[in-house]
Specification:
Largest sheet: 5 strands, mixed
Low-confidence stretches: none
Radius of gyration: 22 Å
Length: 394
């Protein structure tokens, strides 16, 4: 495909601010729309098993809205069929109205020639029969999730219900104790959305447009990564997606932007907050380095002696910049900053503010700073935290 001649030039700073606004971090958030508004604005909220302060899908709306109730977060996602879980950027919560636009992926799974797990004969039909008769069930309730204690050693039942999820005959309607709760799609998805009537081109065009809107501005790779599309899939539809070509200072690659993002200059209040490593603002590491000059890697699966920043280091966003990172933990009602990295002494007040707000959100009444990468900043940070706590308790 021939790349169209760019029609707009953006400075690196303009692109950064456009991205921040598109992701809900610049300007006043729409609090009336709440968590559901955040989900629809982002198009996808990634799930992950790790829970330190909270699970990542809770951290995403918190980062944008502040101290939203955690029970309210779960209700917003799962109550009254507002969302479904499916494979997008990874395992993600997706707005229910996007069900038709993942038909291309469901068809691809149905046509997939090879799988890692064998599907025992008759098990698939038995799972569907049981769900039809008994209603929403976990894999354990269907007959068992694993053959052994090994995480990858799925039972035939688990293989069958996960295959049905990929095919779109079954939907994850909520999580219970972090276990997926499955139900038949014909019951869980509104009838006007259920059937896979859109062809692949229509699906891809919609997802490319959604990715562009959620990113504000992005390269081909950024746009493809958002819903894990292939580059050639993006190429096939981007000219008709409604996105417009732009060049961005220092990016070195063609980019596309949401026209609405270019219509008005991004202005407003910046959010100061801790970010989940799975937040869509930063989940693509090359983009994060390009936009913020910030290198970040999740080290949860790195052997402890080889970790540099900590188990679940969370970048700190302040003033539209990534100003440091915190590896948090909880001990009773104390939020512990096990390790803190600060880009400069100027970041101390922002990191203190982010720590104290996060502590309050998870019902911690104290914050303890353990290690700071620049030791001379430990005392100033501890003092700033003490002041912020005192202000918060007034």
């Amino acid at each position: 495909m021939t790349t169209p001649r760019p029609s707009t030039e953006l400075s690196a700073d303009e692109a950064r601010r456009i991205a921040l606004r598109a992701q809900g971090f610049l300007g006043s958030p729409d609090r009336r729309a709440g968590v559901r508004g955040v989900l629809r604005h982002l198009g996808a909220v990634q799930l992950d098993t790790i829970s330190v302060l909270a699970r990542s899908h809770e951290l995403i709306p918190y980062a944008r809205l502040g101290r939203v109730g955690r029970a309210a977060v779960e209700d917003a996602y799962w109550k009254d069929t507002h969302a479904f879980e499916y494979w997008s950027h990874a395992a993600c919560i997706l707005p229910i109205e996007e069900w038709p636009h993942f038909a291309f992926r469901r068809r691809a799974y149905r046509n997939r020639p090879q799988w890692h797990h064998d599907l025992p004969e008759g098990t698939y039909d038995q799972v569907l029969k049981q769900l039809r008769a008994e209603g929403p069930l976990t894999a354990t309730e269907l007959g068992g999730a694993k053959k052994t204690s090994e995480w990858w050693d799925w039972s035939g039942t688990k293989v069958a219900v996960e295959r049905a999820l990929m095919y779109g005959e079954v939907v994850c309607v909520t999580r219970r104790g972090w276990k997926r709760v499955y139900d038949l799609a014909e019951r869980a998805v509104p009838a006007d959305l259920l059937h896979d009537e859109l062809d692949d081109t229509e699906c891809l065009r919609r997802l490319v447009r959604l990715a562009g809107q959620s990113l504000g501005v992005g390269t081909r790779a950024d746009i493809a990564d958002y819903h894990r599309l292939k580059g050639e899939q993006v190429d096939a539809v981007i000219a008709d997606s409604g996105l417009v070509p732009v060049t961005v200072e220092g990016w070195g690659k063609p980019a596309w932007a949401d026209p609405a993002a270019l219509a008005t200059p991004p202005r407003g209040r910046h959010r100061t907050t801790l970010l989940s490593p799975f937040d869509s603002l930063i989940w693509e590491r090359a983009r994060t380095e390009r936009i913020f000059g910030f290198t970040h890697r999740l080290e949860a699966y790195v052997p402890k002696p080889k970790r540099i920043h900590g188990y679940f280091a969370m970048p700190v966003l302040a003033g539209g910049r990534l100003v440091g990172r915190v590896d948090p933990a909880r001990e009773g009602h104390t939020l512990v900053a096990r390790q803190v990295g600060l880009h400069s002494p100027k970041a101390v007040p922002a990191v203190a503010e982010a720590l104290v707000e996060a502590a309050s959100w998870v019902d911690c009444t104290d914050v303890r700073v353990e290690r700071v990468d620049a030791p001379e900043l430990r005392d100033p940070l501890t003092q700033a935290v003490t002041r912020a706590l005192a202000t918060a308790l007034r």
